[in-house]
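Explain the record.
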Amino acid sequence: MQTSVEQPMSDNTNHVMTPRQAIHDLQSYANSLVIGQDKLIERMLIALLADGHLLVEGAPGLAKTRAIQVMSRGIEANFHRVQFTPDLLPADLTGTEIYRQEDSSFNFQKGPLFHNLILADEINRAPAKVQAALLEAMAERQITVGRKTYHLPELFLVMATQNPIEQEGTYPLPEAQLDRFLLHVTIDYPEKHHEKEILLLARGEARQKNGPTNSNFTPLPQETLFSARQEVLALHMSAELEDYLLAIIAATRNPGAYNQELAQSLQYGASPRATIALDRCSRARAWLHQRDYVTPEDIQDIAYDILRHRLILSYEAEAEGITTDHVISRIIQTVGVP
């Protein structure tokens, strides 16, 4: 099943605001409609600011779909949801050539990947050919159909979801594709007090035919988001923190130099793509927290989502029930903070 939502154009209210104020308002707007998932909203904003994609893992019913729908309404962008199934074809994502009998020509019909925000629901249920088509779009920001290559929009984010409970009939994502995801976010059930707020919000929405609205919020122009990205890239990171960031990545590749337990737990470490992701995401987190400089806490907090899907554990570690989060915690404890 596929659904598409086109966004109305906004007035110029947000153009007079600074990018940081506009993104903060967007975060508040999203948190008001997605209760109890503040971490997910923050990670989605970090992915937007760092110009990357995210993989979200959590049980059904935790507002994963709702989160990206709300985010798409908060930005002047279009959104498309694709339900991944075993019978999905690459053309269902990229589009296909349609034959025009009138003039005996072929006309390219664009697929869902030409939207700004894409929800790839239960991504691991699609076969390898579909994964390959999505991989090109994520990595190259383009798709190839026949002999022609088509470029995707400048604002392009794929949020893929995985169900950690049911694994029957799934296709595990290859490491090469996992590495293309900027973040791997895990979410859990909301707290009790948040669940009460969810009940009240759901009752209110049930009385509205057109779903939740917020008349005081103006959708964020894409240009404001692009300006915010430039501010994030210009954020200050000291040389000592850069060395600290590099040491964390190095510990995943040569764990024996840091800790013998790590050496026994890790089989393969993180790629240089992880270094770039950790740098950009730690800057984005600092920027979201209203700071003009990066702290060790920014690197430590985001390191889990950067490394969770990039580390390959040894057979011994898996047999002992050691998780990648446990290994990342040990790395952070082992590497000295400047």
Remarks:
- The chain has two domains: 2-208+219-226, 235-334.
- The chain has a mean pLDDT of 88.
- The radius of gyration is 21 Å.
- Residues 95 and 109 are 5 Å apart (CA to CA).
